[in-house]
């Protein structure tokens, strides 16, 4: 991805983060999400790409902006697939809890899986355990394989799972096997990345989360040398039929990284909103705001700290790297 485009994508997540951060602690997750979506969509009008939203806020009739299939950008420039989550962890913003981020992934047209807005069963690990997981194997087989790859006893393995009723049996099984369960309330994009980060505080992600988030996370995990696998979990026949119409001839297949993100030209961009293990949150300083972001591509990861003048365009921001 061209550096000038990456810069504009960074501005899109920064604007979304700042807009939603103004709602921190006001217990209005919808207002926070609307602010993030509106700010990100508005900035896309300035980006010189011929972009198509392949992962977005939902189907056309469910979302007024950044819906699946929407064209974004000026139309001038390369054809690009866009996957967005303008505000991951809306509840966390409403309650001023940590871990909320504004995030997107972009890649040359045809590179990102066109996934319907449904669920996905996922397994994700970092570089040391790459090649040691298989979604078709049992939880016990995968945990022992990862523990061996990491050189850890099974009782030191940390497994991230979304705290949902659907995971009750999975959580009990992990604990029976002897591993530790790190429960999260929301945010499995960030959680899927944790095992691939330096000084990782978790070893593996397991369980069912949103399918769009799996594609976005794959963009970063692939570049960082980790691994993620997934399989769509449909809630009804209509979702499965939508998947077929979007080009998935075998909606029930196990999805490997090249199924989720083809090639090595994708870019992952995220900006912290309320702060967490990945990124510090937005800090308002009168007419300015400090924001912390990351860009992950085939060249690795770089973190960026910016001081934004809230009354000026981001082009005039004072940037510290």
Give your account of this protein's structure:
The chain is α+β, with helices and mostly antiparallel strands and 321 residues long. The chain has 2 domains: 3-112 and 266-320, Fructose-1,6-Bisphosphatase, Chain A, domain 1, CATH 3.30.540.10; 119-260, 3-Layer(aba) Sandwich (D-Maltodextrin-Binding Protein, domain 2). 30% of the residues lie in helices and 28% in strands. It has 9 helices and 14 strands. It has helices at 3-21, 29-44, 90-95, 139-150, 168-177, 188-193, 211-224, 237-245, 257-260; strands at 50-55, 71-72, 79-88, 101-108, 119-125, 158-162, 180-184, 204-210, 227-233, 267-272, 283-285, 288-297, 300-309, 318-320. Strands 1, 2, 3, 4, 10, 11, 12, 13 and 14 form a 9-stranded mixed sheet that branches. Strands 7-6-8-5-9 form a 5-stranded mixed sheet, sandwiched between helices. A hairpin with an 8-residue loop joins strand 13 and strand 14 (318-320). It is globular, with a radius of gyration of 19 Å.
What features would you highlight for this structure?
single chain; 321 residues; Fructose-1,6-Bisphosphatase, Chain A, domain 1; D-Maltodextrin-Binding Protein, domain 2; nine-stranded mixed beta sheet; five-stranded mixed beta sheet; 28% strand
